[in-house]
Write a structure and sequence with these properties.
heterotrimer; A alpha/beta (335); B mainly alpha (299); C alpha/beta (346); A: 335 residues; alpha/beta; 12 strands; disordered C terminus; C: 346 residues; four-stranded antiparallel β-sheet; 12 helices; 23% strand; globular; disordered N terminus
Chain lengths: 335, 299, 346
């Protein structure tokens, strides 16, 4: 498996990201606390899943890790090199081992470019190899993602299907031989069967190339299936983080419990979504998050302490940490 | 946000999409008959361009100036004078052609300068924002606040009538217009994921502007340019009408109309013929620009 | 311009649809063709199903399966390039061939539809309350005061928190889940007998999705509405539908009551869909059983079974001959020469 105890590949510490919301006429309206003091590691060879709903900050976190834009504060270390504070060439070099695949397969490809140019772009930007060598690498990488270079190299994005376009995006991410790929809802826009194909591709690449992934999605089942460890985010904060199996079998945070309970099971004989575990209401606004624990307004277990004191992330079991004053004990049916 | 499926509504046109299979070129998918909205104005324009630029070189076209007063006011359809002559003895047909050539040359020059300079500045402002954007926007605000014709007249007046000065005066109109369009298009484009992907791939801003932004905003700028051709031609006509454009005796549709307005009731053709050509030319540019815009914005 | 309360005057109007054998909506051999620029696409091919009051039918399929087009056909919302043939009977009345005017009276009154993206379904420049009132007054003759009360009533019915306050707000001030509730309220304004939910929860968070589905189900019980849920999510169908119709390349490839379908999946495509769904129970890094290829080009369908190129069970017969949808077991129809679970096949 993973985690050989050595230096993590990616270390994020106390990352904070905020956005200023402009009111009418450019007046400062409010500050969106998109990511508030998030710390996590991605180890070599592992897949860390990040799951969260709208406003959880998971996508913002991903972009902050890539310094696009820089986090307001905090530290992001890739292979020992601090990324925050780097600019220009230095940032490019330091960031080279980390690439991203986006949600919209067509949106992330320039509609006017051909596939081979799209895939070649990182090589040109980093000045890798001669023209010949670049072309060879492009063919190689297209082959890896299951696209026949002879057929696809000269196509434009509008001549591709959703699955093919996403493969091109993945190929582009692979050209520089990265160590870590951040997948930001990379399969959420794909049809179910195509989604399965692309997921298998991710696993295959993981086996063949020893890639690590930061896999972001809103679908807990999906995330759990591809990840070694899973982090659950709520309104900019980490609610829980732990090994995928443990998180599923013994969720500690009430929010995780609610997420698990909301997943419709493709088994009509299974009990319907458990009403007692499901949560009510809608996520509060990230501009004005609740005091103390941000989940308390929807939490069935909330008490006075939750409004006053923000729960810190504590490791309750091995490798399994939760930010809650009253974490859930093992439930009777263990789902 | 939860899962976003490819928009179900898009599936209906997607099933009919022109996205061809393996490498088949788009042009073959639709017969020309489906592109009549482009073909017809395009053909008219091609014909007009031929008339103005090629025909005088190869065909029997008289001189537009230096007419003999003995030849004045010859009837149309007379020998050698398709539309007759004007009061000074110049062949109207020839003046129409040479005037048309001037008009289009000027309009083309103005739009090209506008596209290149205005388009570039707009794109820079849109992409980088900040102080550059702020300054540019204020400058544009000032320029756009002037009615185009008044501005052009003022500049032409101070410079004196000549083809070159006309072009200069009219660029004060086209450059801000293009800059505004280009800035808006770039702002929209900047948020697209593939721009972010390009930055993350390590591509620098100049290259992003040249290879990603420019090709994607160009269709919009081109259609804007086509639609603006008509406006520029008319503006030039107006300048010439006021004697501030093409200096007489060189022909321009504008100064031909000016010359003819005095004897409108006696010899209406002196006004009507250049007006008709003006109308058809401007209309064709507009139709073509419009047709291309609806095509290209659908992508 | 509000019309009177008169329901659509139809011939052979039936009470409770009982004279129809209980079916509120019945599709028979529905075909939808699109013709433009010389290309002909059959988006829906011989679709037949029936739904009764109080029941839920799930139309499951991926992009291009025809599920959305078929429901647009029911609502009469297809573009002019579409040709509809076959039969759609709502409460005994034939909908195919109705004029736009007649369809408009039916829409919202008898049949209402909820779409995927609530931010696209709501007018961003109108307050929420105004939009609900508009729907209320279109299908009833209530005056402003009564309509307003009814609007608030509806907003409360869909469990919108603080309905009186939300009434005065604009859509952008509401969250996605709240907007979708408003859309449901609008759909309910005229007491429709049939509600079509087209990917109504796809764009929502999973917790909100659960809430909206529960809401729809409760409303259905309360008003005896029939519900057609269109989705790509078989899991959702399993939890909420009474009957499932699986579509591929414009046609129904498997139809059965939910329990039957999930107990004995026959069509390899349905099986593939089931297996491709991410499951919490799977171990990490499990490889999914995957079906290669992608859906066929509807303009260039092969002569045989459309799923054949990707099917693990395929044989020569599948390429040559298109299997008909036939009732292999009571209540369970499928279109496959070599279905799963039968001799020889996987």
């Amino acid at each position: 498996m993973t985690g050989n105890g050595s230096e993590p590949l990616l270390e994020a510490r106390n990352v904070v990201q905020e956005f200023v919301v402009r009111g009418h006429g450019g007046v400062k309206g409010g500050v969106v606390q998109a990511v508030s003091d998030v710390s996590l590691d991605v180890r070599a060879g592992e897949t860390l899943g990040i799951v969260g709903e709208t406003g959880s900050g998971k996508s913002t976190l991903a972009r902050s890790l890539l310094q696009a834009p820089r986090p307001k504060s905090g530290s992001v270390t890739l292979r020992g090199t601090e990324l925050v504070g780097l600019r220009g060439r230095a940032l490019l070099e330091a960031r080279r081992s980390m690439q991203m695949v986006f949600q919209d397969p067509f949106g992330s490809l320039d509609p006017k470019w051909r596939v081979q140019d799209i895939v070649e772009e990182p090589l040109i930007a980093y000045g890798v190899g001669s023209r010949e060598e670049r072309r060879t690498r492009v063919r190689e990488v297209l082959d890896r993602v299951g696209l026949d270079a002879d057929v696809f190299a000269r196509r434009r994005p509008r001549q591709l299907s959703g699955g093919q376009a996403q493969r091109v995006a993945i190929a582009r991410a692979l050209t520089l031989d990265p160590a870590l790929i951040i997948c930001d809802e990379a399969v959420s826009s794909l049809d179910v069967l195509i989604q399965a194909q692309v997921l298998n591709l991710f696993e295959q690449l993981r086996d063949e190339l020893g890639l690590s992934y930061l896999f972001i999605a809103h679908d807990l089942a999906l995330v759990k299936q591809v990840s070694d460890r899973v982090a659950v985010m709520y309104l900019g904060k980490l609610a829980e983080i732990g090994p995928a199996e443990a998180l599923y079998r013994e969720p500690l945070h009430p929010y995780t419990v609610a997420l698990l309970a909301s997943i419709p099971s493709p088994d009509p004989t299974a009990p319907k979504t458990e009403a007692d575990k499901a949560i009510s209401g809608d996520p509060p606004s990230p501009i004005d998050p609740p005091s103390g624990c941000r989940f308390r307004t929807r939490c069935p277990r909330a008490q006075e302490r939750c409004a006053v004191e923000e729960p810190p992330l504590r490791e309750l079991r091995t490798e399994h940490a939760v930010a809650c004053h009253f974490p859930v004990e093992r439930s009777a049916n263990g789902r | 946000m939860g899962a976003q499926l490819p928009d179900a509504e898009a599936q209906i046109p997607a099933a009919l999409a022109l996205a061809p299979a393996a490498g088949e070129p788009i042009s073959r998918r639709r017969g020309w008959i489906h592109s009549l909205d482009v073909v017809i104005p395009g053909a008219i324009l091609a014909f007009l361009l031929f008339l103005f630029f090629v025909w005088p070189l190869i065909g029997p076209v008289g001189k537009p100036t230096g007419g003999n007063i003995l030849n004045s006011n010859i009837e149309p359809f007379s020998q050698g004078h398709l539309f007759g002559t004007d009061p000074v003895g110049n062949d109207i047909w020839s003046r129409i052609l040479y005037g048309g050539r001037s008009s289009i040359e000027i309009a083309l020059a103005v739009q090209l300068i506008g596209l290149v300079i205005g388009g570039s500045f707009g794109a820079f402002a849109g992409y980088w924002g900040g102080v550059l954007d702020l300054v540019l926007m204020r400058v544009l605000d000032v320029l756009i606040a002037f009615p185009a014709l008044v501005l052009a007249l003022a500049i032409a007046q101070s410079l004196g009538p000549s083809k070159f000065h006309t072009i200069l005066a009219l660029t004060f109109f086209s450059v801000p217009a293009f800059a505004r369009i280009s800035r808006a298009a770039t702002l929209r484009l900047r948020e697209r994921t593939f721009i972010l992907a390009a930055r993350l791939s390590g591509t620098g801003s100049p290259r992003i502007l040249a290879r990603h932004v420019a090709p994607n905003i160009l269709p919009q700028l081109v259609t804007f340019g086509l639609l603006g051709m008509g406006v520029i031609i008319i503006l030039e006509g107006a300048l010439s009408f006021f004697g501030l454009g093409i200096p007489p005796p060189n022909p321009s549709w504008g100064n031909m109309i000016f010359d003819g307005q005095g004897i409108l009731s006696a010899e209406p053709r002196l006004v009507l013929v250049p007006s008709a050509f003006l109308f058809v030319t401007v209309l064709s540019f507009n139709l073509l620009g419009d047709a291309l815009r609806s095509r290209w914005s659908a992508v | 311009m509000s019309e009177g309360t008169t329901p659509v005057e139809v011939d052979a109007r039936v009470e409770d649809g009982s004279a129809n054998g209980g079916a509120l909506l019945e599709l028979r051999d529905l075909r939808v063709d699109f013709r433009t620029g010389g290309r002909h696409v059959r988006a829906v091919d011989r679709l037949s199903y029936a739904i009764s009051a109080g029941r839920t039918l799930a139309l499951i399929g991926e992009s291009g399966s025809g599920k959305t087009v078929s429901s647009r056909a029911v609502m009469g919302l297809l573009p002019p390039t579409a040709t509809v043939s076959g039969s759609i009977r709502f409460e005994g009345q034939e909908l195919v061939g109705l004029s736009d005017r007649q369809m408009r009276r039916l829409r919202g009154a008898g049949i209402a539809m909820v779409f995927q993206d609530p931010s696209r379904s709501l007018n961003p420049t109108m307050r929420v309350g105004a939009q609900v009132i508009e729907a209320v007054r279109t299908h009833s003759g209530l005056d402003r005061g009564a309509a307003r009360r009814r609007a608030v009533e509806l907003l409360t019915l869909v469990r919108l928190p603080l309905p009186e306050q939300r009434y005065h707000e604009y859509p952008h001030q509401l969250s996605g889940g709240m907007r979708q509730r408003v859309v449901v309220a609008i759909a309910l304004a005229s007491n429709p007998r049939l509600l079509i939910a087209d990917e109504a929860t796809t764009a929502l968070d999973v917790t909100t999705q659960a809430q909206i589905m529960e809401l729809l189900r409760d409303l259905q019980r309360q008003f005896g509405m029939a519900l057609i849920m269109i989705s790509h999510d078989l899991g959702l169908a399993a939890s909420f539908a009474d009957e499932v119709v699986v579509m591929y390349a414009g046609r129904a490839v498997e139809q059965a009551p939910t329990h039957t379908l999930f107990a004995h999946v026959r069509m390899p495509y349905t099986k593939a869909l089931l297996e491709a769904i991410p499951r919490v129970e799977r171990p990490p890094h499990a490889r999914l059983p995957v079906v290669p290829g992608r859906p066929p080009d509807l303009a260039a369908l092969p002569p045989g079974c459309p799923f054949e190129p990707r099917c693990p069970n395929r044989q020569d017969l599948c390429r040559e001959s298109d299997p008909p949808l036939s009732e292999g077991e009571p209540g369970h129809r499928w279109a496959c020469w070599f279905p799963c679970g039968q001799e020889g096949a996987e």
